Amino acid sequence: VAAPAATGLPFTPIAPVDASVDSFVVPEGYTWAPLIRWGDPVLAGAPVFDIVAQSPAAQAAQFGYNNDYIDIIVDAGGLTGVLVANHEYVNPDIMFAPSSDPAELRRRSEIYKAAQGMSVVEVVRDAPGAPWRTVPGGRRNRRFTVDSPFALTGPAAGSELVRTAADPEGRTVLGTLGNCAGGTTPWGTVLSGEENFNGYFSSPATTPSRARYGFRQRPTSTGWETWDKRFNGAEPGYENEEHRFGYIVEVDPLDPASTPVKHTALGRFKHEGANVSIAEDGRVVAYMGDDERGDYLYKFVSKHRVNTGSGPGARKQNLKLLSEGDLFVARFTGDSPASEIDGSGRLPQDGRFDGTGEWIALTRKGESAVPGMSVEQVLVHTRLAADLVGATKMDRCEDVEPHPTTGRVYIACTNNSRRGIDAPVDEANPRLSNRDGHVIELVESEGQGGTRFAWSILLLCGDPSGAALTYFAGFPPAMVSPISCPDNVAFDAEGNLWISTDGAPSTIRKNDGLFKVPLEGPDRGRVQQFLSVPRDAETCGPIIRVEDGMVLVAVQHPGEDGSFAAPNSLFPDYGASGAGTARAPRPSVVQVWRA
Ligand code: FEO
Ligand code: CA
Ligand code: CA
Ligand code: CA
């Protein structure tokens, strides 16, 4: 019989952990355990993980590498559900011992295909608030790899820009790449952003689009371009393969027979993720960032309204909501004189980095709103379209998420070492070579589907005891946890913001972590560190369940800067990684609950 669950998440903030320390740290009164690790069995028949016995077939049936977005969609009854996770990239140097044997390297490059993509895994628990367990071989379990079929939807699907020799219809793409953050829709599907997809291709920068998206002709870390025509941009018939990545993908974890989709209507860029809310008039709005220095903030507004019915017909309709609608990009205008934005982070005379802004249409009623570009071109070469309309160059928008009750939108701008070089400071990106990043709070002025907004900077991140100026919504800096490089954002049922970070070891010399930030009352802006992840890892996910007294995070790339022979981390088991004595870190989903 399970002990009654502890609800609520009271905690005393942990002390920041130095960047050389390899441990997972939670507040007093809490305990942690991995829910699933790289290589754990997902599909029926998957072997138990053994780091020296890896194979493409085993990996395709096991949990993938470098989990980033996670959610658990809980079934009615509360004791079962499905965990959905994505797998952003691989770290070959800590997955395998060094080798120069061409046959072995080719075999590994097939494992890299199987280790990326997404996983769906059924989970069970004994009581609400009790730790979850995975169900290997569960009925809804799935793995999506770089060879799994995805259906293209939206105006660019089937267009000339996405046709290849292997897919002359331009409607079926094999695989998903670089999946970073994500979001769960009100109709129970999971969205995931294809981010750094250019890195998997060797493509000469022969076009303005290829140059703008960072394609280059050079050997890639996975080596696919040497044996799979799809990843060689010079291969006749496959010049458009790269146009088939860089989208928001949607997976329906409740229907194991469903084909996942890629939504061209939401544009193609280095999608960090997408988070959906339902506007006042019932249309759905997806907020999205393009995570590149100096790139843009976007939103999509659906043509059709959400069907609030509970039957399968309603769900079927909602699954099409992201296929038709209009795409907008943001322009921010500050309300203080430019002379007061001196690049140091010093507040302007009016006491706030704030102003107004507008959403500029890139498509309108399904047609192009950008002179000289077709709608297909706008949706495939979205960065080029946004360049033409005067969007604001941002400090790397990562996760962008609307608050579930206030509707205010929180934008994590993770950092921008080139602010002041490629673009001058402005009131929305006010620090030169912005090392620690900031968080913007955006209020829609005309409702979620409208085109005008107000904004202000909620947090200028950093270590308040260091030299850089910081700001925490007016809360005394001396009383907050140091925080740097905000990446993912989430909310708890009490309305607090939670932020996970990626990059603090190289800035404030602390391991990355998870932080709670109240948004209302006297504690507004009081950043409190909840947990710290192991050496070299970034904190992803996160899932905050106050009602269960539980937090889950994805621990991505632990020990990334070490080697197979000399691992920097042995997270999460801190022992041998499989049947032999080889030891290596394993990216994992971790659950933290009140002891
Ligand atoms: Fe994969 Fe933008 O972080
Ligand atoms: Ca101002
Ligand atoms: Ca991220
Ligand atoms: Ca990041």
UniProtKB/TrEMBL annotation:
InterPro entries linked to this entry: PhoX, TAT_signal
Residues spanning the signal sequence: none
Full protein name: Phosphatase
